[in-house]
Every structure is written in C-alpha cells, then in structure tokens.
Design brief:
This protein has one domain: Jelly Rolls, CATH 2.60.120.560. It is mainly beta. Strands 1, 3, 4, 6, 11, 14, 15 and 17 form an eight-stranded antiparallel sheet that branches. It is globular, with a radius of gyration of 17 Å. The protein contains no helices and 17 strands.
Length: 237
Amino acid sequence: MARRPHVAIFFCLVATGCAGQSWRILVDGESLNGWVSQDPSKGEEWSTASAVSLDADDPTRFSITPGTGVFVNCASGLTENLVSREKFGDVEAHIEYTAPKRSNSGIFFMGLYEVQVADSFEKKDMRFSDCGGFWGRKIDGEWVGGTPPLVRACKAPGVWQTFDVKFRAPRFDKNGKKIENARFLEVRHNGQLIHKNVEMLGPNSAHMDLPEAPAGPLMLQGDHGPVAYRNVRILHR
C-alpha cells in the first residue's frame, strides 16, 4: 500500500468461555498492519473517520467526519479491496458495517466465499445478489447457483448493521484433493437467521484469484460503492 492511514476496523479481544480460545485481533486499531491492497499497484484510499452519515445532498454517498473509530473505503467508494495478511480456516466472525443508498460491498471468507453487502432495505423478493445473499458463479455465460437470504433483515441505508457468521473451510485429503466443500454453518443478519448450513460448491463471483485451500484471507470489497466497517472480529473454531 502506498499509504498507511490509521485503521478503524478494530478487533475486540473477547473471552469465549472455551479454554485457550479468544477472539482474534487482526489489527490494533492504529494502523493498516495486517492488511494489504488486493492490487498494490493501483493504490488505495481507505481511511479512518470518527463517523460516517448519509450526505444531505446525495444519499448514495457518505459525509465523512475525520478522526478514528470507523474504517471507510473512500468518498467515491471506488477503490481497491483490502485483504488480511493472515489466513484462516474454520472461524466465527462478527462484522459491523454501514453503507449508503444503492451501495454495494462484500465480505469474502478465504477470499473466495462472499457474504453480500448491499442496500436491500426496500426489496421485497430477495435474490442471491441482495444483502446477505451468496452470489452464484458464471459458467459459460450463465449464472449457476447462488443462495438468497431466508429473510430480509436489512436496516435503512446509513444505519449500522451486523453479520454474525459461523464458517467451515473446505476439507482436503493428504494428497490435496478436495473432499468436502466449504459451508456457512450459520449466518445472522442483525440478529436474524438468514442462512443455515449452506454448502459452497465453489467460489462466488468476484472472488480473489486463489485456489480453494484449507486456509485463506478475509477480503473486504471496496470497489463497488461507499462502505464503512467497524468492530470486526474473528474466532478460530
């Protein structure tokens, strides 16, 4: 990354009650250590803010208050994705985000399997491309697969929202052959169950150029519209 502004994705160390387990701190809340741009040659414009709110003149954009506490991709919302340096397998994750009207982002587990972030507040019939959905894949020009959320749990644009995810990585034999697909064991959006035991037949659309593996990074999408994240934490399972 060309610049290293203070980061405001912060990870709380929380006891879980399980011996030897705790929520994983990926960054210290003061720097982008632990994160890299997906394509460093293109630069990045993620920065910190003390708050974000809908722009009074344009609700598709953020009004950004300087400071720390919130991690925002940029005013235009068109910048590089961020990728964790550390790789993970089975995890639980808590993620808080907000996005303006008609914006779009995504949280890619292992850089491959996306939980969609989008403004779906006024949608009635939820599709796989709506908030909380799992995108399908294009094969020979046709969309294949994809899983919409069980219910629409979205809040209004500009309001902070949460995802709580239990993820199981794909399994491989001793020769490296995949013998079990990745699964989202449970996904809750703003406390409501939206997925239960959903198998990933392969990576979703817009995934990183990575092979499926026992472990992979977390990617925060930053090139589809304004988005802000805070209080993201991961627990190894």
